[in-house]
Amino acid sequence: MDSDYGVPRELSEVQQKRTLYQPELPPCLQGTTVRVEYGDVAIAADPAGAHVISHAYPHTYGQPLAHFLRKAANVPDAKVISEHPAVRVGIVFCGRQSPGGHNVIWGLHEAIKAHNANSKLIGFLGGTDGLLAQKTLEITNEVLSSYKNQGGYDMLGRTKDQIRTTEQVNGAMATCQALKLDALVIIGGVTSNTDAAQLAETFAEAKCATKVVGVPVTLNGDLKNQFVETTVGFDTICKVNSQLISNMCTDALSAEKYYYFIRMMGRKASHVALECALQSHPNMVILGEEVAASKLTIFDITKQICDAVQARAEKDKNHGVILIPEGLVESIPELYALLQEINGLHGKGVSVENISSQLSPWASALFEFLPQFIRQQLLLRPESDDSAQLSQIETEKLLAQLVETEMNKRLKEGTYKGKKFNAICHFFGYQARGAMPSKFDCDYAYVLGHVCYHILAAGLNGYMATVTNLKSPLNKWRCGAAPISSMMTVKGWSRGPATTQIGKPAVHMASVDLRGKAYE
Amino acid sequence: MDSDYGVPRELSEVQQKRTLYQPELPPCLQGTTVRVEYGDVAIAADPAGAHVISHAYPHTYGQPLAHFLRKAANVPDAKVISEHPAVRVGIVFCGRQSPGGHNVIWGLHEAIKAHNANSKLIGFLGGTDGLLAQKTLEITNEVLSSYKNQGGYDMLGRTKDQIRTTEQVNGAMATCQALKLDALVIIGGVTSNTDAAQLAETFAEAKCATKVVGVPVTLNGDLKNQFVETTVGFDTICKVNSQLISNMCTDALSAEKYYYFIRMMGRKASHVALECALQSHPNMVILGEEVAASKLTIFDITKQICDAVQARAEKDKNHGVILIPEGLVESIPELYALLQEINGLHGKGVSVENISSQLSPWASALFEFLPQFIRQQLLLRPESDDSAQLSQIETEKLLAQLVETEMNKRLKEGTYKGKKFNAICHFFGYQARGAMPSKFDCDYAYVLGHVCYHILAAGLNGYMATVTNLKSPLNKWRCGAAPISSMMTVKGWSRGPATTQIGKPAVHMASVDLRGKAYE
């Protein structure tokens, strides 16, 4: 499984066949002359935040939307070499790998070379680490050949994910200047695209010539807004996970004695859990957004599950499958408050061993009630975006344990007359994250790669590549770009319950819309 | 995902397409006149055990092998109704569900009805529970229609798996007599087929007219011997798991910061882990058979992994995938001895809370050294076959924790200069167990179902259906039957270190052959 960057690797038969698939381009991107049309100035979705955002992003907020259209019929295709200047472009993977990421690079490379064979695409090795350390690999047809339509991010790799501190931003700028990059393309989700916007603003401020372009690639599916319909990878993740969940349903139904509690990778938002539930029909899905909206406590959720188990037992069904979003813990009000307190103490430099003794009385009481394993997980240092280490917090085990305790109690009291409750817990995510991308993700990523070229060729800075009308056939897809700052919102945030302050503008994850169609 | 037995269920598009696939029959089983030829008397593989076995199975040991052959060219096909008597046959799923199980029932139903339309096939609902409670469902084309080529055991379900105590054996006999069964077909792995042999012997002894037939169906792939090449489900499980492991390899290579420790369902033998390693090329696979043969301690294994991690770090590789068989813990000498002591104390009726205080000094020292989570798991009551609850013992977490501790120590001492070691643990099995069967498993199970009919039509008792030459195309497959008792061996076993006694003969799991081709 090892590969050395840039060295063609051995592929399996399936992988070889996949490299032969050539995604198409929508008509608007065909040929070498694409027309750019500018629309209205893109306004932040949250008007209340617009002032804060425009203040934080004076150079890049308030730019117009861009649309890429087919050239008018009477305009001849440009003569490639003479009319399109050669460009130097850098590209970097940020954040959790997501199926389809490689095709963004492929699409961008194709577009760059089609417009000027002397242009260069430079990949950064090992993600943002490579960006800061100027570790590069020139992307060529040979390098690309074994990564077309393949999963993972292993052509370039990725490690740390943030470009946020002044030191990091300056480091990135130094690299872009040293390599004389006309543009830097950042492939990632909500946090990486927020970083991209910040980088664009700083570069503009510093008169650095490099334009920054973001691409919406994240398996979580939580980068959704007025301009972005879905993200690269979400389709694959949901399909692969749904297949596995269907297997689990068949299995539960065969053994007739287990409840499978499956936590779905996808961060705090429940998009993956909801979509997988729609595709695979488990017995129950718990949505973080519902829990938060109804302010359900962990005991409420436990009771709901227990009641469902009891009702099923009355129909002689002693098995089931329950889906839980990765970050459910942050949607449960009292656990979220506890996490915030812990987070605040981390921020004050309190060591992990001492945190529990410094919690407020109510938080301490809750903390002591929780099983040992989850206490350890709650105490983990938060991630770089201040969220808890959601992948490490086994909410599915906590719920399974609470449900088991309650069912045993009901059994003893005689209110529950079914079989002894047995739970088996799972965390589904890593298995799917490295999966081979679906046809949709192959196509979508490839087209986005092309769009990136047109953004940078138009000299736009701080934009995200967008493709819309995605539910229609590919020949109806619409390509464009929107300023990332216009996708931002401003949230109040807190470190500990006592202090609340206005946060910086950021691209925030989109929650599942409880009034939306999918939810119904 | 719920179904009520016997009611046609809704299928997905893929499932619907699968029901249309019609497996073929090898030439020897085509037509309605199959010739039975008897071979040598089948002798136990272990001559030393033959005496013990023949003593335990006086009515069923020492029977000849049976071969099912194409009728001679000059013999006309039998006239269906007149020449083949109507039969009543019961069938039951035992043990872990394994992909392809449904096709055994389909094949048997086809064969039965082709030979006499008045014959009846009766399925027991909920596995052996249904067998003892006479909960039945008549198998019809309608019942079968939505389960052809599908995964799981959900057409009939399964719960408890043993038919072993006198009470259970008598209960099974009462059912067979009440339902006037000519034969009972048992679908399962090593323990269920051992039960089948015992049932056959008891029935013969009691002059019960029901013949007992076993079918080799288990995902573990550990029912292998001179007569059985592989089991139904093993091919699917290895393919599905290998796909997931390949995803993990891609993922590890992309993130470049994790070691994935993946424990593979498959009980104590390492067949699944080995086959998946061959298909998916992880960085390391630990085989229980190797560990046992070299008498490696948990510390030896930890050191081996640490050395590999260190060597990889020197090549700037800080990631990897390590496969571990489900039941590795039983192959590690000191842990196995500890488990045996615990098992012995369980057998003496010592309560779980008191076991640790009654361990011998050396066992107690080892026990106290182990992390809390694994101690609890080791104390779980053993399964019905006296083995530990292998699925529950998270050896992968134990190893990951020991490796992490050691790598941190080496980092501190300066002997290891790589990045901080990060492990993420997985148990792969449930995801694949309910998977849709591979073409091979569909075909193999269907043919075995047909073979079952010919065994019972020949009036054989205590035989297992066998198909050999499986690596050749289906039209070269050879069909036959072998007495289950001839597959038995006799092992010494112990309850606690002080007492060793000769065990009952049983079909034992086959270990990975360390001199075999696959291992090389």
Automatic annotation (TrEMBL), chains A, B:
Quaternary structure note: Tetramer of two alpha (regulatory) and two beta (catalytic) chains.
Protein name: Pyrophosphate--fructose 6-phosphate 1-phosphotransferase subunit alpha
Reaction(s) catalysed by this chain's protein: beta-D-fructose 6-phosphate + diphosphate = beta-D-fructose 1,6-bisphosphate + phosphate + H(+)
Pathway(s) it belongs to: Carbohydrate degradation; glycolysis; D-glyceraldehyde 3-phosphate and glycerone phosphate from D-glucose: step 3/4
Compartments, as annotated in UniProt: Cytoplasm
Cofactor(s) needed by this chain: Mg(2+)
Keyword tags: Allosteric enzyme, Cytoplasm, Glycolysis, Kinase, Magnesium, Metal-binding, Transferase
Activity regulation as described: Allosterically activated by fructose 2,6-bisphosphate.
GO biological process: fructose 6-phosphate metabolic process; photosynthesis; response to glucose
Originating species: Triticum turgidum subsp. durum
GO MF: 6-phosphofructokinase activity; ATP binding; diphosphate-fructose-6-phosphate 1-phosphotransferase activity; metal ion binding
Domain Phosphofructokinase stretches: 88-454
Pfam families per the UniProt record, alphabetical: PFK
Similarity field: Belongs to the phosphofructokinase type A (PFKA) family. PPi-dependent PFK group II subfamily. Clade 'Long' sub-subfamily.
Summary of the function given for this chain in its UniProt record: Regulatory subunit of pyrophosphate--fructose 6-phosphate 1-phosphotransferase.
Domain of life: Eukaryota
HAMAP family to which the protein is assigned, alphabetical: Phosphofructokinase_II_Long
SUPFAM superfamilies for the chain: Phosphofructokinase
Entry GO CC: cytosol
Subcellular location, principal: cytoplasm
